[in-house]
Amino acid sequence: YMESNVFSNSSTNDDDCSVISFKHMDCLDDHDLLVDECYWSEDVAVLDEIKLNSQNSALPPASNMPSTLIGYQTWEEGRLIEFCSAGHSSNALFENEACVSEYILSGNIPSSISNLDRLESLILPMNMLSDTLPNSISDLSELKHLYLTSNDITGNIPADIGNLQKLEHLSLGINKMSGELPSSLWTLSNLKTLDLHANQFQD
Predict the structure, then answer these.
(1) Under 8 Å CB-to-CB from 44, ≥6 apart: which residues?
(2) What pLDDT was estimated at residue 26?
(3) Is 136 helix (H, G, I), strand (E, B) or coil?
């Protein structure tokens, strides 16, 4: 982003003058100015879609809340690096209290999730996310942590999950997922923890 300052002397007395500084911020192309910060437009659009999908939740995020304030987020150079929003009943599970939200996310994870191509952590447990995991989640090549425990997600693990070669922690436990485990799952050479319990996967 670019900043410019305009200074104004409010007094004609050289011995008693005050200076007013006006800060003006311009975002680069493809960025939006929200809450005095510049954010990559496509990243914000994904968060907007998640917020919209959640409006039928029992405890939805306020529709007028800026999407950049949902849960706990880390941004670097205008790009989303970490997104964590855990349901309010998960207080005891998180050292970072900022991750625990007063609302519950619901609906499907949008296929546009692949636009978050700098994302390293997606942590959305104890919500009411539903439908299948979009295949496009396999395009998040920087992803290291994927926690979707205790939701209502159905269907298979995406066949191309093996594309997430930086993935270290994968938690899909306590959902309604089913089907065969994709062979590419076993090619995740950096995987340290895998939690698939309380689903209906085939042996």
Answers:
(1) 32, 34, 67, 68
(2) 77
(3) helix
